[in-house]
Amino acid sequence: MSKDFLFRQAEQADATAIWEIIKQAIERRKADGSDQWQDGYPNPAVIEKDIVKGAGYVLVDGEIIIGYCALFVDDEPAYDHIDGQWLTNGSFVVFHRVAISGKYAGQGLAQQLLLHIEDFAKAKGIYSVKADTNFDNQAMLRTFEKVGYQYCGEVLLRGAPRKAFEKQLFDS
């Protein structure tokens, strides 16, 4: 994809557009037969909390928000216990709640969003990105594979086992 999209911190005014994108992603997960996000999570309160904490980030096409994720540095207690092994033990960026607008789905934008997350990490001098997904979220599992994430094992998140991945980054 040759078009450059802006990746920026979410603002309070973005909350409605972000929630619309999350709702579309919830419906896509359901249509794909995935159990992920079918239990009332995430919800508007979760998105609000992300924005207030400064963790919400959006992918923007002109003035249109087309993607969302939440980013945290060294802040995922569930990752302290993995059935498997992380590639690294140092500082890391973790992302959650990746969603792309239905109008832009299928265009490789989740991959582009993950590349922006890598740039975010490197800008902070962090060379590890970690994430997890449901066992049946085929779209995200394919995205992890396409952008070079390595399967590390299972973590328990919100009471359910999840596939855990990590990508080591290097100075370019």
TrEMBL record:
One of its GO terms (molecular function) is acyltransferase activity. SUPFAM superfamilies: Acyl-CoA N-acyltransferases (Nat). Gene3D superfamilies: 3.40.630.30. Residues 5-172 form the N-acetyltransferase domain. It is an enzyme of class 2 (transferase). Its EC number is 2.3.-.-. The keyword Acyltransferase applies. InterPro entries: Acyl_CoA_acyltransferase, Bact_Acetyltransf, GNAT_dom. It holds the Pfam family Acetyltransf_1. Keywords: Acyltransferase, Transferase. PANTHER family: AMINOALKYLPHOSPHONATE N-ACETYLTRANSFERASE-RELATED (PTHR43877:SF2), AMINOALKYLPHOSPHONATE N-ACETYLTRANSFERASE-RELATED-RELATED (PTHR43877). This is GNAT family N-acetyltransferase.
